[in-house]
Amino acid sequence: MIEGFLLGVIVTASLTASLYFFKFWTQTRDLLFLGFAAAFLIEGINRLTRLFADDPSEGDPQTYIVRGLAFLTLLAAIAYKNRR
Question: What confidence tens digit (pLDDT) does each residue in 23-44 have?
Fold first, then answer.
């Protein structure tokens, strides 16, 4: 029961961070903020699907694939920012 509550808190925090970074992107049009918004959105949706899963195992390969996608999004945004 407490695991579901804490997972819900993480989902809420991730989606809130995504909204803040998206707001900063709309103000500055800096793609670094858009990359962070996308990464937090991916993580939030990933955790949300795990919240409603029958067996939310952290060792599931799909979890790491989605997390890897989020981290690659961050790395691409940072690399793009530093390229200029």
Answer: 999 999 999 999 999 999 999 9
Q: Which residues are within 8 A (CB) of 79 and not within 5 positions of it... i.e. 6 or more apart?
A: none
CA distance 64 to 82: 26
C-alpha Rg value of the chain to the nearest Å:
14
Q: 70: closest CA among 21, 30, 1?
A: 21
End-to-end CA, the chain: 48
Distance CA 52, CA 62 (A): 15
1-16, pLDDT tens digit by residue? 788 899 999 999 999 9
Phi, psi at residue 57, to the nearest 5°?
-85, 135
Amino acid identity for residue 17 in this structure: A
State the pLDDT at residue 17: 98
